[in-house]
């Protein structure tokens, strides 16, 4: 039996011979916040753009804006220097980055909802690599975050300077970004964008339907290209109504003639949940209601 | 101007749509307004038959000679 004071010696050293393939790793250009429980079930899935899009639509994954500047927010390993000059690593280094963004005030205020968040983070670099972690060599997660701090706009002091906002993070789990790191190619990652909030309004309710207008909250522009199956229509008792077709109103981008056979009643119209919409990339901020009267 | 081609049809509704319901709904909507009244029934029926695969025997004989 091992002595009670026995320690575990380092075992299982892995071979370090390398192939001639090149993998150039670069600076972070985009980060993706994920919920704590989100993971790609395989490397193939993590390299599939559609799986990222599905995760965004299901609100597991939030692409942050493109990075303008990166600062090192890491903490160096703690080193104890003995009185005789010998150095021993006393604590591990911590991987941290401070990412700067040039964002509109609209995005700026929304990014503060992530201040202090406790999820995970994927990083995409300028060479098309994405960084995450895999403890079992199959499933890939983002790195666990120890801190995630959102900073207000920096001060621009003159011409030629711009205001930037920043998010600084530190990774929580040393093994996740050392022995369990998972770096894979995903050239599409920098093109992924988050869901766009849209608002609905409606008018001209008759027994044949109504006119619905969908606009982006960020700039008020109309959302074109929506189809009948993007919408859900119920009466005020919650009974489902079938939308027969949707026809864009000429000269009025974002407005549609919505056709349905309606009775005299009150109605509630909305877009479906993002993942259930045929047209991807949007989320409704609320319903629009109308009444069909005699 | 909105045309019939611009319309996004709901496939679930098309499965259950009857000719009368289709005609009633479609004649009143902008995409069909540009069609001359004399051609409206024919255009509507062609659209109905194309979209649903359903037939109305009298109209089918009249417009598709079957």
Tell me what the structure shows.
The complex is a heterodimer of chains A (about 290) and B (about 70). Chain A has helices at about 45, 50-55, 105-110, and strands at about 30-35, 60-65, 70, 80, 85-90, 95-100, 120-125, 130-135, 145-150, 165-170, 180-185, 195-205, 210-215, 230-235, 240, 245-250, 255-260, 265-270, 280-285, 290. Chain A is mainly beta. In chain A, a hairpin with a 4-residue loop joins strand 14 (about 230-235) and strand 15 (about 240). The longest helix of chain A is centred in the N-terminal third of the chain and has 9 residues, at about 50-55. The mean pLDDT of chain A is about 95. Chain B has helices spanning about 10-15, 20-25, 35-50, 55-65; one strand at about 10. Chain B starts with 7 loop residues before the first strand and ends with a helix. Classes of the chains: A mainly beta (about 290), B mainly alpha (about 70). The interface of A and B includes residues 226, 246, 248, 249 and 257 of A.
Percent of residues in beta strands of chain B: under 5%
Largest sheet, strands/sense/barrel of chain B: none
Number of domains of chain A: 2
Distance between the termini of chain A: 90 Å
Which outline of chain B best applies?
globular
The fraction of residues in strands of chain A falls at: 35-45%
Shape of chain A: elongated
Could you say which structural class the secondary elements and strand pairing of chain A correspond to? mainly beta
Number of helices of chain B: 4
Oligomeric description of these chains:
heterodimer
Q: Which chains have the largest interface?
A: A-B, 19 and 22 residues
Low-confidence stretches of chain B: none
The tally of strands of chain A reads: 20
Reading the helices and strands of chain B in chain order gives: EHHHH
Count of DSSP E strands of chain B? 1
**Tally of helical segments of chain A:** 3
What average pLDDT do the residues of chain B reach? 87
Topology order of chain A in helix (H) and strand (E) letters: EHHEEEEEHEEEEEEEEEEEEEE
């Amino acid at each position: 039996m091992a002595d009670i004071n026995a320690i575990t010696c380092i075992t299982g050293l892995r071979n370090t011979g390398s192939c001639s393939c090149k993998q150039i790793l670069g600076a972070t250009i985009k980060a993706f916040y994920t919920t704590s429980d989100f993971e790609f079930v395989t490397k193939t899935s993590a390299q599939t753009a559609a799986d990222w899009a599905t995760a965004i639509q299901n609100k597991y994954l939030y692409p942050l804006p493109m990075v303008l500047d990166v600062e090192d927010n890491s903490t160096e390993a703690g080193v104890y220097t003995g009185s005789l000059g010998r150095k021993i690593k006393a604590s591990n280094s911590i991987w941290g980055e401070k990412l700067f963004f040039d964002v509109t005030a609209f995005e700026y205020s929304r990014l503060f909802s992530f201040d202090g968040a406790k999820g995970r983070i994927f990083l995409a670099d300028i060479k098309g690599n994405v960084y995450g972690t895999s403890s079992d060599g199959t499933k890939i997660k983002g790195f666990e975050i120890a801190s995630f701090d959102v900073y207000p706009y920096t001060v621009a002091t003159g011409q030629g300077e711009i205001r930037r906002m920043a998010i600084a993070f530190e990774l929580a789990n040393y093994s996740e970004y050392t022995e369990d790191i998972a770096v894979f190619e995903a050239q599409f990652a920098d093109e992924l964008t988050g869901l766009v909030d849209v608002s609905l309004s409606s008018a001209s309710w008759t027994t044949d339907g109504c006119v619905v207008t969908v606009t982006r909250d960020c700039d008020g522009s109309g959302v074109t290209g929506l189809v009948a199956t993007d919408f859900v229509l119920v009466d005020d008792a919650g009974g489902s109504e079938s939308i027969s077709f949707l026809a864009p109103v000429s000269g009025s981008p974002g407005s549609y003639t919505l056709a349905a056979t309606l009775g005299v009643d009150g109605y509630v119209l909305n877009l479906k949940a993002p993942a259930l919409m045929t047209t991807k990339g949007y989320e409704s901020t609320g319903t629009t209601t109308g009444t069909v009267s005699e | 101007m909105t045309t019939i081609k611009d319309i996004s049809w709901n496939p679930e509704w098309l499965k259950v749509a009857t000719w009368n319901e289709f005609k009633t709904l479609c004649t009143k909507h902008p995409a069909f307004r540009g069609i001359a009244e004399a051609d409206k029934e024919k255009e509507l029926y062609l659209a109905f038959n194309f979209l649903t695969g359903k037939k109305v025997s009298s109209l089918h004989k009249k417009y598709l000679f079957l």
